[in-house]
Amino acid sequence: MKRILNLEGAINLRELGGYPTNDGTTIKYNKLLRSGDISNLTGKSLDYLKKYGLKYVVDFRSNNEQMTWADTTSDFYKIYSDPVYPLKGNGDKLAGIINKDNYSYLGMIYQSVVLDAHGQQAYKIFFDLLLNNDQPNQSLLFHCAAGKDRTGIGALLVLKALGVDDETITKDYLLTNLMYESKSTIEETLNDKNGNQDINKMNMTKGDLESITSVFKAIDHYYGSFNNYLRTALGIDGEKLAKLKAIYTE
């Protein structure tokens, strides 16, 4: 099974099935996709996604991005607007306390997102939709613009919740850098001259190891454990976590 799906009109579209978990299970195929921009999907790509069982599309982009590059609509899936930005600002302060000016550009932003009240609310909505995707032969796609930052955090949270180890999660995150070999595509599709310049800068910055591991560090520091973060920040208790694993692993 291919990990990177080169569908026309999609940026950085990837299958999350097949990863092993600490429980001895694996993540189901044809259940979970991560992606960047999908505003230019062709008829052929839509046919593929229909056969794949796509029913839910979760869009982490800002309202401005959603208007500028609206997701391709279709009658077989529903699009859920779930902007991660703008953050409320409390996450920046919390991230700054544990970093003391020693952090990577993306790492500091990622920590702010997972610690911020609005960021947590956005991912709480995401997990609620993941739990709704409980029917056989139905799948969910979540995306932002580059499919690296907001989507990368979403992938980290769901993969770790399902029991995938940190090294595998990090490797999945770094796969995005293959996309940066085609710079023109990114610049043409993702740079919003009238939009948020911080988002533009993030879209143009390659992922790095420190950025993603800093998220684990922030969660451990403030929440003690990942399961405690799931429960208190995202509302995923033991019962919901068991349901999530039943839906996405086998």
UniProtKB/TrEMBL annotation:
<dbReference type="InterPro" id="IPR029021">
    <property type="entry name" value="Prot-tyrosine_phosphatase-like"/>
</dbReference>
<comment type="similarity">
    <text>Belongs to the protein-tyrosine phosphatase family.</text>
</comment>
<dbReference type="GO" id="GO:0004721">
    <property type="term" value="F:phosphoprotein phosphatase activity"/>
</dbReference>
<dbReference type="InterPro" id="IPR016130">
    <property type="entry name" value="Tyr_Pase_AS"/>
</dbReference>
<dbReference type="Pfam" id="PF13350">
    <property type="entry name" value="Y_phosphatase3"/>
</dbReference>
<dbReference type="InterPro" id="IPR026893">
    <property type="entry name" value="Tyr/Ser_Pase_IphP-type"/>
</dbReference>
<protein>
    <submittedName>
        <fullName>Protein tyrosine phosphatase</fullName>
    </submittedName>
</protein>
